């Protein structure tokens, strides 16, 4: 499925296994809010992915689905520009996952680093399951079913996007080679009109004979603009550029989120598993208390002992929240014992509370209007299904699963 129009399509998902915290906000959600202004975005609750690890305590999933959606809405993810949905509300993902499983070599899944890593890390759970092995393939189906070309993910998920690319390539190789492909491609070129046909052929030549990658990019953009061409023709011409068959599935790129190292209360990365989080809807008084009692440079036993910001978790929070003026004040005051740690923490406390106040206010609005939240998700899921169905139709057809 080639994304329609010349806008890139972005897809990302989040597993509903706990409350969202400032790490999610700074690491993921702020980026989503930005992406939704530039691209055609699909964001979803990956409840089936959560089930691969939480099948024994699946109540956690139901407990977190709606709160997660409310948190998205509260931080400004906008259902007017992005499609928001729940994975299991679009069962087409499961059918594509099944169909792709037929052509996915076992070794490809076994070699994905997260497979062994997570089994080691989550020892208390039995992850020697078929479902867990298929985790990255399910993710591949999520991505491929929307023809997403950009997938914002963290470092740990890049291997999953890479696997998705390989699956797409294999699928296109196996099923994109229809009889009479060349003729069909040439007929499609003619349908572009004289000027564009000439341009396409020129770019094709430049890429194929001189390996000019810019020409390939321009040609792809040109194809996306050909609204009057049928999708199947655009896929043919996209595949033709690279000397293959039809490109039925689009190879996605990982979009590494701008590195945000949101530190937790102990200086490690903020993460539920370290118990060092501030959740987005945490009570302000509890936030104050957590920050007031968070550790500082252990050398500052007494108020008169100078400290070193470079080994202090509070300093890392200043790096996120404070401007140069405050940071200069911290460095000077800390190293000369001119300020106490509580003084030092106050600007961070103020910034965190100021950041969360409007988010919490919006969250309360959505909490009061659960019906609206349901409606947003139902609408997003329907819109997602429309796209997903189209891809599945083509996949079934390409695999020869249409019996008329
Ligand atoms: N595996 C992702 C995570 O744990 C969640 C996810 C599921 C996802 N499907 C996806 C992310 C598709 C991007 C695209 O964070
Ligand atoms: Fe950390 Fe600030 Fe205390 Fe220095 S003054 S040790 S930077 S909290």
Low-pLDDT residue intervals, each spanning 5 or more residues: none
Structural class: mainly alpha
The total number of structural domains is 3
CATH top-level class of the largest domain: Alpha Beta
> How far apart lie the N and C ends?
23 Å
Describe the fold and architecture.
This protein is 59% helix and 6% strand. The protein has 404 residues and is mainly alpha-helical. Helix 4 packs across helix 8, helix 11 packs antiparallel against helix 12 and helix 15 packs across helix 17. The protein is elongated. The model has no long low-confidence stretch (mean pLDDT 94).
What key phrases describe this protein's structure?
404 residues; mainly alpha; Rossmann fold; Tyrosyl-Transfer RNA Synthetase; 3 domains; 3-stranded parallel β-sheet; two-stranded parallel sheet; elongated; binds tryptophan
Summarize it:
59% of the residues lie in helices and 6% in strands. It has 404 residues and is mainly alpha-helical.
Question: Topology, please?
Answer:
Blueprint: E1 9-14, H1 22-38, E2 40-45, H2 47-54, H3 59-75, E3 82-86, H4 92-101, H5 106-110, H6 113-121, H7 130-133, H8 135-144, E4 150-153, H9 158-175, H10 181-191, H11 194-210, H12 213-225, H13 231-241, E5 253-256, H14 284-292, H15 313-321, H16 324-335, H17 341-368, H18 370-398
Parallel strand pairs: 1-2, 2-3, 4-5
Helix pairs in contact: 3-17, 4-8, 4-18, 8-9, 10-13, 11-12, 12-13, 14-17, 15-17
